[in-house]
Design goal:
- Keywords: Membrane, Transmembrane, Transmembrane helix.
- There is one protein chain.
- The protein has 70 residues and is an all-alpha fold.
- 81% of the residues lie in helices and 0% in strands.
- It contains 3 helices and no strands.
- The two termini are 15 Å apart.
Length: 70
């Protein structure tokens, strides 16, 4: 079962990361709409940076997993 999960991790992560990106984008849009004085460009840049960091950490973790080709 563990090998199945490791082999199909990308199929699981793709929709999860997509939902996370859409949710963060929508939350940023709501924040900008209801708080006009906030600099929305800074929030979008921070969100993009956070997504980049999350994706990078996940990909580095996946690369560090040992290959089970045997």
């Amino acid at each position: 079962m563990i090998n199945f999960i490791h082999r199909n991790m990308a199929l699981f992560l793709a929709p999860v990361l997509t939902v996370a990106a859409i949710t963060l984008y929508n939350l940023t849009g709501l924040l900008v709409r209801h708080h006009h004085t906030l600099a929305h460009e800074i929030h979008r840049a921070a969100g993009a940076f956070a997504l980049l960091a999350v994706f990078y950490v996940i990909l580095r973790y996946m690369q560090s997993l040992p290959d089970d080709e045997a």
